């Protein structure tokens, strides 16, 4: 009986040595981020420092430039907070409150700008964002 048990154990050891262990399947590699630029919301507001010439277009929109000291931003514009920044308007819808000039708004007027900024995922290479302002609101300065 002991001989059969010893032979059975030896056979198991030999079988374990002869049969190769199955290799583990390779881990799937995570997909690389798609480096495609997309537009996200861009909103800033602040005080008008200087206004370039705002020109009315035939379709009721305005083109020109505004220099704004930025006091409030959304997440996508937070790099501009507490900075004086120049914005170019191209066919933007602009609303003027009572007492604000439509061609040359006064310095110190309150400004809110809404538009988009192009962005890419963080792990992509160098990228230059483009800011497009679509709406602007100009209000008289606080007294």
Please explain how this structure is put together.
It is a single chain. With 143 residues, the chain is mainly β. The chain has a single domain (38-139), classed as OB fold (Dihydrolipoamide Acetyltransferase, E2P) (Beta Barrel), CATH 2.40.50. It has 1 helix and 6 strands; from the N terminus they run αββββββ. The chain has a 5-stranded mixed barrel. A hairpin with a 5-residue loop joins β2 (55-56) and β3 (62-73). The model has no long low-confidence stretch (mean pLDDT 86).
Give the CATH level 1 class: Mainly Beta
What's the number of helices?
A: 1
Q: What string, H for helix and E for strand, traces the elements in order?
A: HEEEEEE
Quantity of strands, as a count: 6
Query: Percent helix among the residues?
Result: 10-25%
CATH topology: OB fold (Dihydrolipoamide Acetyltransferase, E2P)
What form results from the Cα inertia axes? rod-shaped
Residue windows where pLDDT falls under 50 for at least 5 positions: none
What is the overall pLDDT average? 86
Could you say how many structural domains there are in total? Answer: 1
Distance between the termini: 108 Å
């Amino acid at each position: 009986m002991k001989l059969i048990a010893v032979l059975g154990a030896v056979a198991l050891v030999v079988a374990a040595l002869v049969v190769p262990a199955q290799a583990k399947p390779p881990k799937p590699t995570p997909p690389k981020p798609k480096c495609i630029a997309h537009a996200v919301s861009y909103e800033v507001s602040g005080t008008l420092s200087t206004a370039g010439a705002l020109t009315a277009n035939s379709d009721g929109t305005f083109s020109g430039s505004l220099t704004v000291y930025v006091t409030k931003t959304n997440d996508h514009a937070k790099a501009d907070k507490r900075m004086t920044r120049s914005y170019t308007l191209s066919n933007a819808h602009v609303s003027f409150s009572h007492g604000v000039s439509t061609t040359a708004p006064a310095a110190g007027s309150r400004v809110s700008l809404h538009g988009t900024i192009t962005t890419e995922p963080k792990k992509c290479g160098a990228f230059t964002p483009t800011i497009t302002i679509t709406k602007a609101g100009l209000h008289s300065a606080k007294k």
